[in-house]
Amino acid sequence: MSATATKSAKKKSTLMPLGDRVVVEREEGVQKTSGGILLPDSAKDKPARGTVVSVGEGKLDDKGHRHPLQVRPGDRVVFTSYAGEPFKVGDAELLLMREDDILAVLG
User: Fold this and answer.
1) Which residues contact 59 (CB under 8 A, 6 or more apart)?
2) What's 38's DSSP letter?
3) Domain spans, the chain
4) CATH superfamily placement of domain 3-7+16-106
5) By the number of CB atoms within 10 A of the CB, which of 28, 38, 54, 66 ranks highest?
6) What backbone phi and psi angles, to 5 degrees, belong to 75?
7) How many CB atoms lie within 10 A of CB 61?
8) CA–CA separation, 51 vs 38, rounded Å?
9) How far is CA 48 from the centre of its chain?
10) What is this structure's pTM?
11) pLDDT tens column, 52-92
């Protein structure tokens, strides 16, 4: 399966992750504390949540059968904090990670 990067990206690119890889767009970090203090970029934590942009065909087992991934494009997910390899497509920053790095799908 392939999917277009994001609507926010100026330049459209088709991304097709291989195997059990998933492309995720990370959600924006908190700009302001609950007390109203604006945070500089260096003080912001990168959220471990995002939206799945595209998914690979699935993992190949020992017998050569493909097992489809449990996540689909458009799913909001929670992933481990150091998961994925960051890269840019146009203006969008995306993460390429394995499905194993995804902890949960948000409903």
Assistant:
1) 19, 20, 66, 67, 69, 99
2) B
3) 3-7+16-106
4) GroES chaperonin (2.30.33.40)
5) 54
6) -70, 140
7) 9
8) 25
9) 9
10) 0.73
11) 999 999 998 899 899 999 999 999 999 988 888 998 888 88
